[in-house]
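Structure tokens please, single chain.
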Amino acid sequence: MRLFYLISTILLSVISVKVQAQKDSIIKANNNKVVFVNNLEKGLVHLNNSIANKVSPIEIMMIVHTEIHPNLLEAFNLELRK
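Here you go.
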């Protein structure tokens, strides 16, 4: 009986560690998503303000390709077609 108790205690400890690691992984992934979504929002605001201020087309292109596009891909797990 003691052996069974010892084995079950060890198994529960291992499972607990694995579950905590999975939870930590999910939390980290969600935190990363929040960062990408926040960066995406900043990029969209920057784009909107730049359009309102009638900046050059090259500046618009830079905002879209450096601030919006990468964060859009990461925030929503999108992949480029190959």
